[in-house]
Amino acid sequence: MNDITMRLQADHLIMEALKEDISSEDVTTNSVMKNRRDGQVELICKQDGVIAGLEVFARVFALLDGETSVEFYCKDGDRVEKGQLMALLTGDIRVLLSGERVALNYLQRMSGIATYTRMTVGLLEGTGMKLLDTRKTTPNMRIFEKYAVRVGGGCNHRYNLSDGVLLKDNHIGAAGGVRQAVKMAKEYAPFVRKIEVEVENLDMVKEAVEAGADIIMLDNMSVEDMRKAVELISGRAETEISGNVTKENIEKYKGLGVDYISSGALTHSSPILDISLKNLHAV
Question: Is-contact 218 178, C-beta < 8 A?
């Protein structure tokens, strides 16, 4: 996540997280540290995994005090091990204490997603299938969570509702059918946007192909029906699998020859990676 993206898209979200945690003052820190005193604290990994969000972590402290410095000993995407020293923070002890929880919340959450994604991508190795995330993200955390998916080796599906046309079951119901929905989308959406259609059975697959859909999402279909669907589509549209896909069941889809497989679990079910700030001392 570069500096421009951070300033334009992330800084205001980080500030809201800080305001949530410090509504008026950090009364505990102010009780024990009434004046500025410089200190250092270590960022320690407590669990094996993939790290993501180091720049976001550092940004929390920078927004509280621009003089805070962070020396990293790893980078986003690196595999880290339990007990590993990942960074050393130096700055006003009051800032180190007050920013700790928010900074760790971001880093733990993002690293957990990157770790889960890396494991899931590994299960698809050699298939040519791309692993996608979804919009099933934590409110106000999407930019961070989708970034973490990329760090873990996954790919981003559309970022939000303005980003692409995806005709799901309720859109199709509102339009009166697959053909009608695709026709309306082609008439309304700019020609540069692909049109994806979510289908639930083989009849809908046939309609989507005949209507000229660019991408056909096979949602919650049996593996056997998915295999028949891929044969039916026969390269006339890109194909995606979706519906309760997790790292525990993803391998059953490996031989289907689809282009993409999307998993909401990457962002809604990844456990955090355990990380701590330890050994705070004055310098």
Answer: no
